[in-house]
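Cross-posting from the chemistry board since nobody answered there.

I work mostly on the small-molecule side, so proteins are not my area. We synthesized 2-acetamido-2-deoxy-beta-D-glucopyranose and want a rough idea of how it might sit in this target. Sequence and SMILES are below. Is it possible to get a predicted 3D structure of the two together?
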Amino acid sequence: MAPASSVVVALALVLLCFAPINISAAGVRRQPPRQQLPQKLRFGRNGEFKILQVADMHFADGKKTPCLDVLPSQVHGCSDLNTSAFIRRMIEAEKPNFIVFTGDNIFGFDATDSAKSMDAAFAPAIAAGIPWAAVLGNHDQEGTLSREGVMKHIVGLKHTLSQFNPSEAHIIDGFGNYNLEVDGVEGSGLANKSVLNLYFLDSGDYSTVPAIPGYGWIKPSQQLWFQHTSAKLRKAYMSPPQAQKSSAPGLVYFHIPLPEFASFDASNFTGVRQEGISSATVNSGFFTTMVEAGDVKAVFTGHDHLNDFCGQLTGIQLCYAGGFGYHAYGKAGWSRRARVVVASLEKTEKGGWGAVKSIKTWKRLDDKHLTAIDGQVLWSKNSAGTRRKKHIIGGGA
Ligand SMILES: *[C@@H]1O[C@H](CO)[C@@H](O)[C@H](O)[C@H]1NC(C)=O
Ligand SMILES: *[C@@H]1O[C@H](CO)[C@@H](O)[C@H](O)[C@H]1NC(C)=O
Ligand SMILES: *[C@@H]1O[C@H](CO)[C@@H](O)[C@H](O)[C@H]1NC(C)=O
């Protein structure tokens, strides 16, 4: 080997040694781009924390972008701006503490400029000054920015608590895997403890494995991060000061439903299923990982715009939000909709606020009165731990 090329090889080795952060086995850069100062999420003085989920905005170019699947009488004057108006109406009606956008925030194919499209799509949340978070769907990267580029843009926007990826995970697949803690009421005994945990994951876009067709899935690297994070949070919550007896409830947000969403029919879900469950064609085991961790009470996805149900499997509620955006496919005459989740704290004997007592949900339709439907309790502390009664199928005995 000529001396010159040995130098090149040596230099390359040196570079590799000093740049491990930018290169990973998963081919993923994890160096976080500019982040905002962390804002603290906490329960309000009313003992509640309310989350608005916006699924599948499919935003493109604003006023120029027409609505899909609306009634013939609604076509005229309908555009992406109706999606923005719906967010503003929801904010006005529900006054959420936090907004989660669960992917397909923009419809990349039709957006001339992905960054501008995102700026417009998230503008109503930013204008309202409400902290918000977003994860990626399978359409966000189809425009002028890659998935990495889209997530980098999101984390630089105002009032967002979205993160590029966890700084402690050296290798992780995808962009926009992170968690947020929601502390107890200011001045209460649990003011400095996370009483509700929120997890956000990148469920990918499409399979890159030729032998496996279809959508992406949550990879082992992401599940390992989830396991570590959940374990750390459980330990902190159950340790002094104010050691609690059981873990704080966790809620998980991502875009593509898990194969387990297909476990239900109308007899055991609340809401509707009007199309198939478009999960990955393989099961990467994230549902089992969550069951094992034990703290997750509900999972919220989008992706299938005509499904809006919640069903419970092995102690975890699996919920769709239903399609929100007007440039997304839908069903004419079937209103666009959003899901609201509210966690409520229990009152302590001394009249203060304690741990989370219940988690409830409902949806609102983008009709004249923002009709609320399908109210249900997703989880309650009192019934947790006690085994659910077995339903006797077939009646009689
Ligand atoms: C879209 O917004 C326009 C302007 O506010 C409104 O007139 C129209 O009814 C909306 N369309 C739908 C389908 O909500
Ligand atoms: C929480 O932290 C704040 C600021 O550090 C402190 O003033 C307060 O006493 C703490 N509250 C509890 C219950 O630990
Ligand atoms: C829902 O009910 C159907 C039968 O109607 C049953 O096959 C299915 O296992 C049930 N799912 C769950 C999660 O209980």
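Reply from a structural biologist on the board:
Welcome over. Reading the output above for you: Helices lie at 3-18, 80-94, 114-128, 147-155, 220-237, 286-293. The longest strand covers residues 353-365. Happy to explain the token format if needed.
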